Amino acid sequence: MSATRVRFAPSPTGYLHVGGARTALFNWLYAKHVGGTFVLRIEDTDKERSTDAHTQVILDGMTWLGITWDEGPFFQGEYGPRHRADAEALLAAGKAYKDYHTAAELDAARAKASAAGGAFRFTRALMPMPAEEITRREAAGDPFVIRFAMPDEEIAWDDAVHGHISWQGRDLDDFIILRSDGSAIYNLAVVSDDIAMKITHVIRGDDHISNTPKQIALYRALGAELPIFAHLPMILGADGKKLSKRHGATAVGDYQDMGIMPAAMRNFLALMGWSPGGDEEIVPEAEMIARFTLEAVQKKASVFDTTKLEWMNGQYLSQLSAEELLAPVERQLGILGVDAGTRDLLPIIDALKARARTVTHLAEQVASRLDRSRLVRDDKGNALVTKMGERFAQSLRLSYPALEAVSAAEWNAEKVDAVLRAVGEANTLKLGDVMQPIRVALTGGTVSEPVNDLLAVVGRDESLARIDLAIKA
Ligand code: GLU
Fold it and tell me: Average pLDDT of 263-289?
């Protein structure tokens, strides 16, 4: 076991966003690659927005994706005493100080800065308070916050993704580390916890880059060794803007409901910012773990391409057996309100899985073969009917009696294939002109499993009924 320890530290203030899932995945892949430990820490310090339900959704999403944690979940809210002790140690060492400014005074300073066209920044030099005023407010028992005394020094680190990054302490605030109610703010809580949990690599979204210099200053002030920082590139929607609800589904659970398989989602997310080196896109889990390095994480943002996700899902679906797909399909049929009764779904799934992109799509196809009321004539189906004109119904009228002559006992894919070929030959019809109308009659569309398999799956009586309906339509 290596000494490497990484963590995923979500705030349970919402569902598990795909960006969060990608962060979790990269931490997990890195830990697996080096044989380290993956810690899960729930950052539930925002009491108003954090809920147990959100925590559960995050745990469920990770479990669904197969991202397992070695330690935790730990809850940041339980570490308040340690956060306070760290703030007090900084105070005692003169590296932090009590600030008695009131909200009104800060608002006034903010307004003044913005009127002068500048950004507001709080430092001891910019917002001095005379010693006697501090003593007076202290004696009056006025509320105070604890601020970090930002040193005037260079703060630099070699980011494992972005390379060398450097800030100057003088450009940063004396930021608050402890609120007047004694609770820690994010930057202190996260550093205190990462030190206590012996985290060696902080791998997170690059929206946190601006927090990193403040956190490094805290590590230094607390006398702790710095971890390696790796800031992952942003995930964008197709329009190049940061991925958000506007772009459609962003919750991992939505993709589960849409019929995406966890292995496909994991593979897809892994390629959001990481390249396995070659051109291949389907990377099995063991390969991913073997090849994952932080050096191979790209700096530039990646685009969340739903079409590609569905394509990838289709690749995974076709590799799964009908048995493996049975439970997910049944779950989706349940959502669609379809009761399969005693029908054996395995041959239907087998016939359909190669062309399905999502389990939902697969379940809809299964449903349309089981239940006539699920038949919908799609655009391609309508186009074929228009293109063939009279010949559409004529062709079906020739096939109908030939199929009707096949008994239920003889009805199978081979038999109906022979019958339909004979219909084509006897009437000098192209095979497509015999098969396509049947496909449209039975599925509503022009793309499906081979027509003879389709007839076998739908069954004799139901196939004849659908052909009859299409003739009369
Ligand atoms: N709780 C923080 C968030 O959800 C993560 C902090 C971190 O990874 O350092 O953004």
Answer: 94
Our mutation pick for probing the ligand 1 site, out of 23, 190, 215, 231, counting the most ligand atoms within 8 A of Cβ, is 190
184 lines ligand 1 (CB under 6 A): no
The reply to whether omega before 130 is within 30° of 0 (cis) is: no
Residue 213 tokens, joined:
């210099």
Q: Which of 112, 245, 387, 430 is catalytic?
A: 245
Residue 23 Cα: closest atom of ligand 1:
8
Largest CA distance in the chain: 109
What CATH homologous superfamily does 1-69+233-319 map to? Answer: HUPs (3.40.50.620)
Q: Please name the residue that has the structure tokens 């790796």.
A: 230
Domain 80-232 grouped into CATH 3.40.50.620: yes
Give the class (CATH, top level) of 376-472: mainly alpha
CA–CA gap between residue 178 and residue 175 (Å, rounded): 9
Q: List Cβ neighbours of 378 (8 Å cut-off, separation of 6 or more).
A: 444, 445
Residue recorded with tokens 């439970």: 327
Query: What average pLDDT does the chain have?
Result: 95
Contacts of 288 (CB under 8 A, 6+ apart): 29, 266, 267, 270, 276
The C-alpha atoms of residue 278 and residue 295 are separated, in whole angstroms, by: 15
How many Cα atoms are found within 13 Å in the side-chain-facing hemisphere of 207?
9
> Is the minimum distance from the CB of 449 to ligand 1 under 6 angstroms?
no
Q: Say how far residue 174 (Cα) sits from the centre of its chain.
A: 36
Ramachandran bin of 198, using left for φ above 0, alpha for ψ from -120 to 50, beta for the remaining angles = left
- Report H helices in 117-185: 131-139
Whole-structure pTM value: 0.88
Q: What is the pLDDT of residue 248?
A: 81
